[in-house]
Automatic annotation (TrEMBL):
Family matches, as Pfam families: DUF4345
Keywords: Membrane, Transmembrane, Transmembrane helix
InterPro entries hit by this protein: DUF4345
Entry keyword annotation includes Transmembrane helix: yes
Gene source species: Aporhodopirellula aestuarii
Ranges annotated as spanning the membrane: 46-67, 91-108, 115-137, 143-165
Protein name: DUF4345 domain-containing protein
Length: 173
């Protein structure tokens, strides 16, 4: 079985950052800030941090696999490679994931934070779902199961960010 320590380390670090951020923002929620504006700022901060961490994860994978597409092939034990495989990995993992990161940050800059979170969340849900389907149809893979869990956790944090914004808007009205 190929060594997956680099890939798993990347997933764990990204999700640890999200979990730590969530715990910090949630524990600050009742810190004595008067009025709804303090809570709204906490919710906005949580959502913004989730946007930035998720976009950074997409961009990190885009750069890493754009530069070293064979790393993905090695991770799954694929020994026979063609230039076309490398190009496909660069296009999807390099180009599409960088595009997702860019759209997330552009939406965030335009103060469309919920939209930015959904742009990050839906591909994560799609990847996790596709991995789960693959496990059912093709057989269990610990690597795919691990990735699916981390992708689903990332999806949940993006959705939590959307709901935190919704709650702060609802509280302000």
């Amino acid at each position: 079985m190929p060594d997956m320590s680099l890939e798993l380390t990347w997933y764990v670090q990204c999700n640890f950052c999200i979990l730590t951020t969530a715990a910090t923002c949630r524990s600050d929620a009742g810190s004595g800030v008067a009025g709804n504006s303090g809570q709204m700022m906490k919710n906005q901060r949580f959502a913004t941090i989730v946007v930035w961490i998720t976009a950074a994860a997409y961009a990190g994978f885009a750069v890493w696999l754009g530069i070293s597409p064979n790393a993905l092939l090695e991770a799954f034990g694929i020994d026979q490679r063609t230039p076309q495989m490398a190009t496909e990995i660069r296009a999807f993992y390099g180009g599409v994931e960088m595009g997702i990161a860019a759209v997330m940050l552009l939406l965030w800059k335009q103060k469309q934070v919920a939209s930015a979170l959904l742009v990050g969340a839906l591909p994560l849900l799609g990847s996790a779902s596709g991995r789960c389907l693959g496990i059912v149809v093709d057989g269990f893979s610990a690597l795919h199961a691990t990735f699916a869990i981390f992708e689903f956790v990332g999806f949940l944090f993006c959705v939590a960010g959307v709901f935190s914004l919704k709650n702060s808007v609802g509280d302000a009205t």
